[in-house]
Design a protein that fits this description.
Elements (H helix, E strand, L loop, with lengths): L1 H10 L10 H6 L6 H8 L1 H9 L10 E6 L2 E6 L2 E2 L1 H14 L3 E6 L5 E5 H17 L7 E5 L5 H12 L2 E4 L6 H11 L3 E5 L1 E4 L2 E4 H9 L7 E5 L14 E3 H7 L9 E2 L3 E7 L7 E6 H15 L8 E4 L6 H13 L3 E5 L10 H9 L3 E4 L1 H10 L2 H4 L8 E5 L5 H11 L6 E4 L33 E4 L9 E7 L9 E2 L3 H8 L8 E9 L5 E6 L3 E4 L2 E4 H9 L4 E11 L3 E10 L9 H12 L8 E4 L13 H8 L14 H14 L1
Parallel strand pairs: 4-17, 6-7, 6-8, 7-14, 8-11, 11-12, 16-17, 16-18, 18-19, 19-20, 29-30
Antiparallel strand pairs: 1-2, 3-13, 4-5, 9-10, 14-15, 15-23, 21-22, 22-24, 24-25, 26-27, 28-29
Helix pairs in contact: 3-4, 4-11, 5-6, 5-7, 5-12, 6-7, 6-10, 8-9, 11-12, 14-16, 20-21
The protein binds 5'-O-[(S)-ethoxy(hydroxy)phosphoryl]adenosine (WTA).
């Protein structure tokens, strides 16, 4: 360990830069820096050149119609995402290419070829039609990481239904809320979800809410495990394998307008109510295929690409499903935990499938670092040629460890910044062009115009400020589902109607490199997962014993940020025995386990201004152990002292 520490220190020189390795540059299709100037001169033409690589039933006439903040890309064009991800590869003779090496957590593996996935998709698309799902209808998907999940997604895309995927770790309550607001007619799920080798019944969870959704007509259930008892409500619940067996295996891909909605994906915002980010077909597919191809220097014939996210998040949508499949790539689809059955599980997979490209979040890298290098060192990782990071700022120490221990010092690292709203990567190195600096996402992708501004919206040439995007891009969110006004207010009001307010703080250095700091709104980033403080607060106060709560994100060396809840109780204020666990379980039920506070601090009162507003900023300072500044504006300044004492006592 001491030696490793020393190695890291040596590599962590203050201004360490990493040039793209010579061999990598030689073998890359994208090694000319002139790409940036070309895209800058004509960004519409640049994106068009990527759209042209897709299959269109009818070509577009207008590349971009921009009535800020309303963008329409590739109008009059008609295409189908499922056709682009499947049929065209099979038609080109690549039906035998593996789309997914699927690895179940409990052992089994299955190679799903493009021809297999097309067959599954067509059958399920026919089945959906048979259930009365029509173009424009919303279909909910709440599933584990199994091959049926991308098939369900693409089946929706095939018939023009809009998928609304909910991450499998969310609670049934969250599923209910997301189905309700989008009027989903069908919900696709599985009978089991694996948790560290054990099946958990997913269907019985869904049953808790399915009856409360008047618009929901059917629940389709994939039989993930035969040994899990699965109650089925006659007429409503259907087995995936039964309806697919009976379905017509020939379901042509519907030609859809480029701006036809492809999916809704709910994400957390500043208020308790999640935002339904809406993406459309042509632009999104152009953006994800372009970035997947260039940023991962993709060689579709030889690469084995592994995005170790969950399909339930945008990273999975864009870089497990649409990007890789549009590009005809072979991916790993791993169902389970990185440390089950042992801490070398990932590295065993990398060795077995000769993975060339790994894309994961800094939290996972930090966990691996903590477990020790002996786990990766047990395996031959020489197939890896490129590493990626996403979801949260990567601290230079984790970056260097990734580079050295996993990448054997030969793999470039692409630290990619983007959001559910942007659809695809926006600030990222290009691995054969960009010199990297650990901790910096480097430069905007060609054609993207990002700027750090001060609070008046003035450009910051060097230093810190707020991140903005100034030019439309094809994968940009088109609106919030059913909430146009909220879309404008949230993203397009602060600096002007044509400037996208990202909600992240960032620094920019003298080379024009971006260093993303974190959120500026009430969103917490825990292990790369976006959580809303308001949503967690409202889950806490919905417990009958809780009078008031303030939730903050405190810096955490493992998960980036951790959820800390300050709670005042009804009545005595003394927490009853075991209440912390009860409250954590309550939050898990309301939102999902991932939203459970790591720490709960009980207080008689919370710091408030004289007008009664809770000072969350002060609580964040307390949670992060900072000295508090001026507290005289508080109604009762002694409150903070009491909370500090409480926290200190708990830490002992
Ligand atoms: C953060 C995930 C630093 C950022 C793709 C953003 C990052 C939010 C990075 C979006 C990165 C994402 N460096 N921070 N490379 N990538 N973020 O919507 O705060 O789940 O606004 O999309 O994650 O999270 P989302």
């Amino acid at each position: 360990m001491a030696e490793e520490q020393k190695d890291l220190e040596v590599l962590l020189g203050s201004e360490e830069r990493f040039a793209p390795p010579e061999e990598f540059v030689k073998a890359s299709e994208y090694s000319e820096a002139a790409i940036y100037d070309q895209a800058e001169r004509d960004f519409e033409g640049w994106w068009e050149s990527w759209a042209e690589k897709l299959d269109w039933f009818e070509k577009w006439e207008t590349t971009l119609e921009w009535n800020p903040p309303w963008a329409k890309w590739f109008q009059e064009g008609k295409l189908n995402a499922s056709h682009n991800c499947l049929d065209r590869h099979v038609e080109a003779g690549n039906g035998d290419r593996v789309a997914y090496h699927w690895i179940a957590e409990d052992g089994p593996t299955r190679d799903v070829t493009y021809a297999d996935l097309l067959d599954m998709t067509k059958r399920f698309a026919s089945a959906l039609k048979g259930l009365g799902v029509e173009k424009g209808d919303v279909v909910g998907i709440y599933m584990p990481m199994i091959p049926e999940t991308p098939a369900a997604i693409l089946a929706c895309a095939r018939i023009g239904a809009v998928h609304n995927v909910v991450f499998g770790g969310f609670s049934p309550q969250s599923v209910k809320e997301r189905m309700e607001v989008s009027d989903a007619k069908v919900l696709v799920t599985a009978n089991a979800n694996m948790r560290r080798g054990k099946p958990i019944s997913m269907k019985t969870e869904v049953d808790k809410i399915a009856g409360e959704l008047p618009e929901l007509k059917h629940v389709v259930v994939v039989e993930r495990r035969e040994d899990v008892e699965t109650p089925m409500q006659s007429g409503r619940d259907l087995w995936w394998h039964e309806i697919c067996e009976q379905a017509d295996g020939d379901c042509p891909a519907e030609p859809l307008d480029a701006e036809h909605p492809l999916f809704i994906l709910y994400t957390s915002g500043s208020t308790a109510k999640p935002k339904g980010i809406l993406h459309t077909t042509g632009g999104y597919l152009t953006g994800v295929s372009a970035t997947h191809r260039m940023v991962f220097d993709l060689k579709p014939e030889s690469d084995v690409f592994w995005c170790a996210a969950d399909i339930g998040w945008v990273t999975g949508h864009s870089y497990i499903v649409y990007g890789p499949l549009a590009n005809g790539a072979t991916s790993v689809l791993y169902e389970g935990a990185p440390d089950y059955p042992d801490k070398d599980r990932w590295w065993e997979i990398v060795e077995r499938y000769k993975v060339t490209t790994l894309y994961t979040a800094p939290t996972a890298i930090r966990a691996c670092m903590k477990w020790g290098r002996e786990h990766p060192e047990k395996h031959d990782l020489s197939s890896l040629r490129l590493l990626g990071s996403v979801g949260e700022p990567i601290n230079p120490r984790a970056w260097v460890w990734y580079h050295k221990v996993i990448g054997g010092e030969r793999c470039p690292i692409v630290d990619t910044w983007w959001q559910t709203e942007t659809g695809h990567m926006m600030i990222t190195p290009l691995p054969a062009i960009t010199e990297t600096k650990p901790g910096s996402a480097t430069r905007p992708f060609p054609g993207v115009d990002a700027q750090v501004v001060d609070k008046h919206g003035e450009k910051v040439e060097e230093g810190g400020g707020f991140l903005t995007l100034r030019r439309p891009w094809p994968g940009m969110a088109r609106t919030l589902f059913g909430e146009d006004e909220r879309f404008v207010e949230t993203y397009w009001s602060k600096y002007g109607p044509d400037i996208y307010d990202v909600g992240d703080a960032s620094k920019v250095d003298s080379d024009g490199y971006f260093w993303i700091v974190g959120r500026t709104d009430d969103v917490i980033n825990v292990s790369g997962h976006r959580m809303s403080t308001m949503e967690i607060e409202s889950a806490c106060v919905s417990h009958e014993r809780v009078a008031e709560t303030a939730v903050v994100g405190a810096a955490d060396e493992d998960t980036g940020q951790a959820i800390v809840a300050f709670v005042t109780l009804d009545g005595t204020g003394e927490e009853p025995e075991g209440f912390t666990e009860e409250l954590r379980a309550h939050v898990a039920e309301k939102i999902g386990k991932l939203a459970r506070p790591k720490r709960i601090i009980y207080a008689d009162d919370l710091p408030k201004t004289r007008s009664g507003k809770i000072m969350r900023r002060l609580l964040k300072d307390i949670a992060e152990g900072r000295e508090l500044g001026d507290v005289t504006t508080l109604r009762d300044p002694s409150v903070t002292e009491k909370i500090k004492e409480k926290m200190a006592a708990e830490s002992d």
